[in-house]
Every structure is written in C-alpha cells, then in structure tokens.
Amino acid sequence: MAHTGVKSVATLIVVAVVAAVVWRVNPRPKSVTPPLVPGEVIPLAIEVLNASAIDGLARRATHYLRSQGLDVVSYGSAAGEPQDSTVLRVRRGDTTAAIPVRDALGFGRIVLDPDARLLLDVTVVLGRDAAQFGRYP
Predict the structure, then answer these.
(1) Is 122 exposed, middle or buried (0-12, 13-18, 19+ CB in 10 A)?
(2) Of the ranges 21-25, 59-63, 83-87, which one carries the lowest mean pLDDT score?
C-alpha cells in the first residue's frame, strides 16, 4: 500500500509539472480588443450622401474629408427631395462621434440616428449649404 501512495504523489507531481510547463508555454490569450489609450484616435467609418441637387458634390466632399484624414467608406446620392442644410447622422455611439466630421466640414447639424445595419459611424447628408465643395477639385 505504501507504494500506491508514493505512486499517487509522484503522479500528482508529474501532472503539476506538465501543467505548469504547458501554462508557461501557452499563457492565456491576450484580449483581441486593444486597450484605449488617451489621445488615441479610433477611425470613423463615414458615408457621404448628396442631398443638394448639385452634381458631384458627394464625390468632392469625400475627397476633401479624406484629405483631412477621415475615412469615408462610401459616397453617393441621397433619396428624396433636395435639402437646404447638411445633417450629420450618428449611426453608432453618441453624438461626439460626428464632431471630427463637423470640425473638418465647418458646418452641419449633428443628430443621433442609430442604425446598426449600416456598419457606419456617421452618415453625412449634404444640403445646399455645402455648395462650397462644388469648387473643390
């Protein structure tokens, strides 16, 4: 019986050593999401739509916003009647997401209009007040 006790203790020691080696070689996986660092800029996914009836305005505004370091992932024409004023529709998060876009444009009313299906942060709906981009190359 004494040998059985010694064998059990030896087996436990071997299992413990193997487990320690495996844990040391393969530690717990690190978080996939990087930690937020103060001052770190997380890119926004931005869509630009032309609701002004001015041809090519969304394309020119897209070029301008990209030149300002913003990530415009799509642009095109808005459905419906032409609009007088530009609206920045926040699709994810809070209204602070649209502040860098408004700062770059210099105008636009920010509204919270969540839509998780779009996979966007901000939709810029350009109104006639964005006519200045008609002169942007």
Answers:
(1) buried
(2) 21-25
